[in-house]
């Protein structure tokens, strides 16, 4: 155990890492800087127009600082190593997402999100990284020969240098680092996710791309990189329109729940389209020629209320209902989704909580108990796949008649060697802890008002 408090605590490492990645991504993808500028403009305008109500799901300070990143890895060892790096920053794996079953365009990855899990840590800095792992053994995507060659290729690379892993282990063990160690960890960790300029084997990359653009992005290069870094906005529809007005092409849809008159739930996401980035290519004869890849894009998100399992089941049913209509235009899809929402969800927050569909915190204000929404901190696999699909140069291919490879939350936890947190359990614990605090206050005054508010 350290003899004194470390100079730099995990949350400070997390905040500094998020800033450095944001600076890096802004240099590599200039349109991302425009996205940040527009997000900040929209957030300031929403707060000016609506005051405290605009900050009901997060203060302007928190929303301004908030980011989620996305990275893609190729092997279980790489996943375990990144888990160790994120643990040094107070980020833990939450949730299991299987994008291999996402319709209409499955992606050959399983994913988790590394993030803080305690409410206080989320308030300090809520940085999250959606982390996807390729599944080369899934026969719906890869035959045995391609699997063998892909796994052999991935086995030759080292993404996380030993010095970084040693510092991460020390930070996790000691609860932080001295200033020199923190600077070195941040320097090494940021460098891992910088876009490499090493020539890409064009034939190999294109072979993988015919299966999946995501597979090529992961297994077609000897490095990894930030795929997107996502700010949070208080009015995603206003941002969408404003970005288009600045001449930046956006994908066709805002993924997730619709804009409607009822409570905002879960997560809405959209992005500008992936841009051509210059990359050198190596040809079969060994020569190197200029080329371009489209794998990175600028995503933005708006967060709503965390839903209970029953609320989430209703959400999934509404999404499936609209998807089955196979409507051709974004406007038709939006109208159908709003109609489905009106049939599925109550029109007010109070009814959402009364029916046990959404999570809330109980707080005592001026002697009265109020319910405040708990923000959804996680992700939606269908929306993630939709964003991926909208930004791929190639649709890829899969054969649903073949058997998939079993991958689940228990398997992922075993790879990580860490607890894989259940997001529903985290929200429920936060809600119950708030009730316990209210009950303690009430008991001290001889009353138990929170009992009247139990769904």
Automatic annotation (TrEMBL):
<keyword id="KW-0408">Iron</keyword>
<keyword id="KW-0560">Oxidoreductase</keyword>
<comment type="similarity">
    <text>Belongs to the 2-oxoadipate dioxygenase/decarboxylase family.</text>
</comment>
<protein>
    <recommendedName>
        <fullName>2-oxoadipate dioxygenase/decarboxylase</fullName>
        <ecNumber>1.13.11.93</ecNumber>
    </recommendedName>
</protein>
<dbReference type="Pfam" id="PF07063">
    <property type="entry name" value="HGLS"/>
</dbReference>
<dbReference type="GO" id="GO:0051213">
    <property type="term" value="F:dioxygenase activity"/>
</dbReference>
<dbReference type="InterPro" id="IPR009770">
    <property type="entry name" value="HGLS"/>
</dbReference>
<keyword id="KW-0223">Dioxygenase</keyword>
<dbReference type="InterPro" id="IPR047869">
    <property type="entry name" value="YdcJ_bac-like"/>
</dbReference>
């Amino acid at each position: 155990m350290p003899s004194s408090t470390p100079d730099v605590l995990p949350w400070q490492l997390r905040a500094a890492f998020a800033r450095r990645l944001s600076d890096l991504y802004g240099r590599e993808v200039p349109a991302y800087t425009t996205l940040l500028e527009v997000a900040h403009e929209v957030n300031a305008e929403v707060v000016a127009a609506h005051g405290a109500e605009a900050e009901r799901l997060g203060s302007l300070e928190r929303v301004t600082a908030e980011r989620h990143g996305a990275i893609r890895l190729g092997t279980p060892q790489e996943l375990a190593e990144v888990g160790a790096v994120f643990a040094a920053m107070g980020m833990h794996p939450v949730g299991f997402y299987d994008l291999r079953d996402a319709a209409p365009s499955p992606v050959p990855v399983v994913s988790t999100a590394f993030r803080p899990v305690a409410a206080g840590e989320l308030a300090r800095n809520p940085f999250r990284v959606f982390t996807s792992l390729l599944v080369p053994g899934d026969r719906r995507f890869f035959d045995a020969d391609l699997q063998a060659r892909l796994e052999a290729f991935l086995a030759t690379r080292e993404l996380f240098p030993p010095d970084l892993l040693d510092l991460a282990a020390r930070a996790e063990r000691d609860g932080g680092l001295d200033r020199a160690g923190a600077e070195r960890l941040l320097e090494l960790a940021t460098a891992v996710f910088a876009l490499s300029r090493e020539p890409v084997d064009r034939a190999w990359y294109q072979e993988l791309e015919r299966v999946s653009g995501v597979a090529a992005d992961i297994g077609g290069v000897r490095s990894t990189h930030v795929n997107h870094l996502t700010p949070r906005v208080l009015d995603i529809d206003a941002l969408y329109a404003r970005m288009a007005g600045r001449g930046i092409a956006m994908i066709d849809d805002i993924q997730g729940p619709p804009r409607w008159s009822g409570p905002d739930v879960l997560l809405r996401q959209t992005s500008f389209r992936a841009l051509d980035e210059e990359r050198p290519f190596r040809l079969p004869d060994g020569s190197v020629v200029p080329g371009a890849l489209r794998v990175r894009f600028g995503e933005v998100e708006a967060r709503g209320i965390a839903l209970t399992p029953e609320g989430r089941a209703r959400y999934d049913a509404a999404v499936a209902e609209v998807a089955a209509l196979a409507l051709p235009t974004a406007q038709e899809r939006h109208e159908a989704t709003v109609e489905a929402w009106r049939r599925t969800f109550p029109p007010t927050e109070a009814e959402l909580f009364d029916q046990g569909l959404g999570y809330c915190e109980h707080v005592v204000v001026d002697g009265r108990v109020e319910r405040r929404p708990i923000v959804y901190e996680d992700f939606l696999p269908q929306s993630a796949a939709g964003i991926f699909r909208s930004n791929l140069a190639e649709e890829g291919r899969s054969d649903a008649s073949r058997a998939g490879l079993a991958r689940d939350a228990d398997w992922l936890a075993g790879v990580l060697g860490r607890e894989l947190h259940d997001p529903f359990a985290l929200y429920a614990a936060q809600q119950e802890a708030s009730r316990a605090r209210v009950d303690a206050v009430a008991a001290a005054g001889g009353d138990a008002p929170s009992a009247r508010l139990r769904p």
